[in-house]
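Thanks for the sequence, V.! I ran Aldo/keto reductase right away. Repeating your input here for the record:
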Amino acid sequence: MMDINDIKGTTTLSNGIKMPNFGLGVYKAKDGKEVVNAIHAALEQGYRHVDTASMYKNEEGVGEAIRSAGIPREEIFVTTKVWNDDEGYENTLKSFEQSLEKLQLDYIDLYLIHWPTPQYLDTWKALEELYRSGKVKAIGVCNCLEHHLQEIMDNFDIVPMVLQNEFHPRLVQQSLLDFCKKHDIQYEGWSPLMRGAIFEIDELNDIAGKYNKSIAQLAIRWSLQKGAVTIPKSVHKERIIENAQVFDFEITTEDMQRIDSLDKEERTGYHPDHFLNPS
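Predicted structure:
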């Protein structure tokens, strides 16, 4: 059960690991001062979850921020990901060690496959090995659909503990949420603000006004109430603070349904089945 009434609230993954329900995404945050300052601002606000990836090219800064924050390492949940060009069994093991070296951490809390390339099953084999070695506390996948998850479950012993996908009121994918719940896979949403496009949805503005909240706060709260771990990204301190002010209100069932009804299967990123050949 997700505790969504506290910024430090967690959900328990299928293997017993506690994952914070709310975190900071650092996609496009520049390595060095920018990402360090963003993470420090987030940690000061109570965030305890940072989501990066080898593709973001800022793992060094993420590690520096965590080490210099003055917060015990075990209190901060760190996610990184293996990129498409590094997939496959041997390449994934090498890529993981490179990420660990850049982060300068003893372990990773969550390691994810970034996209389901044709080698993702071999990649999953490597993730299982990393998990069993203790270098990773939990493993999962990003940007996958039911059939990708089913294929992993049909071929391996370990079911992905987390699925991180694009998730916002224009892309609900309720059947996928239900599939994950059935198989005890924690859903996690990226791009909860649709890369800014969410502010153009007039109905969200109307609903947000009822709660004295911004559209961003409404969308983040909706995501949490849908059962999704949520990682809005920002490098601006004021936005990092605003995004965290979502634990003092609750959206009614009626308004949750109104927001759900805005679903248009609209993506800001690639479709998981077509990202290699988007045309």
